[in-house]
Design goal:
By secondary structure, this protein is an alpha/beta fold. The protein has two helices and eight strands.
Length: 128
C-alpha cells in the first residue's frame, strides 16, 4: 500500500491554490470552483484541496511536508511573505520542524527527519 494523496478543506479555493503554489507544490488539476490537486515536488504523492461551506471544528487537519533543506526553505518562504507560527526547531522526537497555517487554518508542518522519519530509536522491532 502507498499513500496517494491527502485532501484538505478550503473556504476559498483561489487563495489556497496560491498558498500551496508558494510552498512549492505544482498545480496539476484545477476544477474550479470546487477542487484543485497538486503534485509534490519529490516522490509520487499528491495533495488536494476541496471547497467546503464550513471548516471542521476542533484540532482540524495536520499535514507534514518533508524538506531536506528545511531552514533554507523556511527562509525562502518568509521572504515571499509566508508567516510561520513556529520557526525551525529541533523536537524531542528527533525531527526538525517549522509550523504554519494555511489560509483555512489547517496546520502545516514543514520538517526534516532524515533516518528518524521511519527508523527512530524507539521503532518497534520487526516480527521474526
Amino acid at each position: 500500500m502507498n499513500l496517494n494523496q491527502i485532501t484538505v478543506p478550503a473556504l476559498d479555493l483561489e487563495k489556497s491554490i496560491t498558498f500551496y503554489q508558494t510552498l512549492g507544490l505544482q498545480l496539476i488539476v484545477k476544477a474550479s470552483p470546487r477542487y484543485a490537486r497538486f503534485a509534490c515536488p519529490e516522490g509520487g504523492s499528491t495533495f488536494s484541496i476541496h471547497l467546503v461551506e464550513d471548516l471542521p471544528q476542533g484540532n482540524g487537519v495536520m499535514v507534514y511536508f518533508e524538506c531536506t533543506q528545511l531552514d533554507d526553505k523556511v527562509q525562502e518562504l518568509v521572504t515571499q511573505g509566508i508567516s510561520f507560527d513556529e520557526m525551525p526547531e529541533d523536537r524531542p522526537w528527533l525531527w526538525r520542524e517549522a509550523r504554519l497555517k494555511d489560509p483555512n487554518g489547517n496546520q502545516i508542518i514543514l520538517f526534516y527527519a532524515g533516518e528518524n522519519r521511519l527508523n527512530p530509536p524507539w521503532r518497534l522491532k520487526e516480527s521474526p
